[in-house]
Specification:
230 residues; alpha/beta; seven-stranded mixed sheet; 7 strands
Length: 230
């Protein structure tokens, strides 16, 4: 049973969030692979996090799982990825949402696996999970695609602008809020898309992350004055 004081605090946070006119349409959660694989509750906590977001009427949820690949044996990384993919599929397969999983497999092109087909889920609810696929890789891929089009004469160099670059990016949506649990490091993910995003860092370890921590992050976001570079 929830502590009465925490219950009261949670009620106050919810009221403040509901009364704010500032919407949160897309939230990005940043984790390390150890957050999900070293603790049995890590993946279950992710499932709870998604449900908490939906209760706040946040329709788009992205999760970036940082994976340290430098110096890692290729076979070890492949096994870790395979295991994480299976566990994510097990935990999230019952969610009524469109779920897409991306992974950066070393020198290969980024892999994309659709866990749930679009028409089987709720098209208004989208979950995107990226395992180790960095923003630098995404931008590099976009630049290569544009270079190919220039080479074959499909476009002229003078036609390259922000809209063209954005059209070649894999992830199209800009997150409103990024939550980084258990660390204060920035991440190399959505580096183009998150230029105007608000960041919220919490020293709360992911295994101990609570619904109240999400509410505090969303309340904090709604209290900020977003300038969008102005």
């Amino acid at each position: 049973m929830l502590n009465p004081i925490l219950y009261l605090y949670e009620t106050i946070l919810k009221r403040e969030i509901v009364n704010s006119p500032i919407p949160v349409n897309h939230i990005l959660l940043v984790l390390d692979d150890t957050d999900l694989l070293s603790d049995t509750m890590g993946l279950e906590k992710l499932r709870y996090f998604i449900k908490w977001c939906y209760a706040l009427k946040i329709p788009m949820i992205s999760v970036y799982i940082s994976v340290i690949k430098d110096g890692m044996d290729r076979r070890l990384f492949e096994r870790a990825y395979s295991h994480l993919r299976q566990e994510l599929n097990r935990v999230l397969s019952k969610e009524k949402a469109s779920i897409v999983l991306y992974a950066d497999k070393a020198e290969r092109e980024p892999a994309c696996t659709k866990i749930m087909e679009e028409d089987e889920g709720n098209n208004e609810k989208k979950i995107t999970i990226s395992i180790g696929f960095s923003g630098r890789r995404e931008l590099t891929k976009a630049v290569k695609e544009i270079a190919k089009k220039v080479k074959i004469g499909e476009i002229e160099p003078e036609e390259i602008d922000e809209k063209l670059i954005e059209s070649e990016l894999i992830f199209k949506s800009e997150p409103d809020l990024v939550i980084r649990s258990g660390a204060t490091r920035l991440m190399d993910f959505l580096i183009w898309q998150s230029v105007y995003t608000e960041f919220y860092f919490t020293d709360m370890n992911w295994a101990k992350f609570r619904k109240i921590d999400l509410l505090r992050a969303v309340r904090d976001f709604k209290m900020r004055e977003r300038r969008f570079g102005r």
